[in-house]
Amino acid sequence: MTHGSLFSGIGGFDLAAEWMGWENVFHCEWNKFGQQVLKHYWPNSISYDDITKTNFTIHRGKIDILTGGFPCQPYSTAGKRLGKEDERHLWPEMLRAIREIQPRWVVGENVIGLVNWSGGLVFHEVQSNLESQGYEVQPFVLPAASVGAPHIRQRVWFVAHSSKIGLSTKMENGELERGRFSKQDKRKVWDTFPTVHPICAGDDGLSKKLDSITFSKWRKESLMAYGNAICPQVVYQIFKTIEQYEGLNSRNDYQDSHD
Questions:
Q1: Is there a catalytic annotation at residue 231?
Q2: In angstroms, how far is CA 47 from the centroid of its own chain?
Q3: DSSP SS3 for 253
Q4: Cβ atoms of residues 56 and 79 within 8 Å
Q5: In this structure, are residues 206 and 188 in contact, taking their beta carbons and an 8 Å threshold?
Q6: With left for phi above 0 and alpha for psi between -120 and 50, is residue 7 left, alpha or beta?
Q7: What is the DSSP letter of 130?
Q8: Degrees (nearest 5) of the Cα angle 141, 72, 115?
């Protein structure tokens, strides 16, 4: 499976895709610290900067799964909740990227505050926008605690699928890529909680190795990056479900063609 990420941060979606054994084709992140982390761990992926200035049409029909945690600040209860009036309201840019790329799957993420901001205006808009592009959409509320994290961290996830866009070559051939999640990772123990800082590698599910490529001047950025990051263990469960669905459909299509 091929994967591309938008608003990539420090690579939570990309890490989960790597656990699945998928190819991380590109990432898009404007934050300089995030860019350094992404280039360090995925040097072979195409690296984009400002989504508003990026044309993604070269990837049309070549990405199986497009992901993105579009900025949450406009809807977060920790902020002013300016919504569409906030310059960080970038869902329209993610929608444009979806139109240009036409991935088979879209997985979007945001804070739980999106559900009730302005009576659920943007929450419903995201779904209607995706449906207008031919996707079937199912929103979920999944907390980090659901995969054993020692904190709740509620998030809303949009999982969208288009049956109009063909399977990748590997899927057409009935081949399933198997995950490379080690047994040790599968049994991940959240053994570093409580920690010195409220958000850090120990309790958000990200690797401690992130700090090993940073230095003193990045300390503040490192903590902010952890706080803004998604929990990759949650995404991994979503990705596993998608792969199982694709595998089932691939086998059914194969059987139908040989009946």
A1: no
A2: 16
A3: helix
A4: no
A5: no
A6: left
A7: H
A8: 40
Token pair of 157, please? 């996830």
Alpha-carbon distance 211 to 37, whole Å? 10
Catalytic residue among 28, 72, 200, 231: 72
**Would you say the pTM of this structure is higher than 0.85?**
no
Q: Classify the phi-psi angles of 169: left when phi > 0, otherwise alpha if psi is within -120 to 50, otherwise beta.
A: alpha
* Residue whose C-alpha is closest to residue 177's, from 8, 14, 11, 22: 22
pLDDT in tens, the chain (259 residues): 999 999 999 999 999 999 999 999 999 999 988 998 899 899 999 999 999 999 999 999 999 999 999 875 555 444 444 444 555 578 899 999 999 999 999 999 998 888 876 667 788 889 999 999 999 999 999 988 888 887 788 899 999 999 776 544 343 443 334 334 343 443 344 454 443 333 445 556 666 665 555 555 666 777 777 777 889 999 999 999 999 998 887 665 545 554 5
Contacts of 244 (CB under 8 A, 6+ apart): none
From CA 66, how far away is CA 13, in angstroms rounded? Answer: 10
Q: Which class for 224: exposed (0-12), middle (13-18), buried (19 or more C-beta within 10 A)? A: middle
Beta bridge partners of 137: 160
Architecture of domain 2-166+180-257: 3-Layer(aba) Sandwich (3.40)
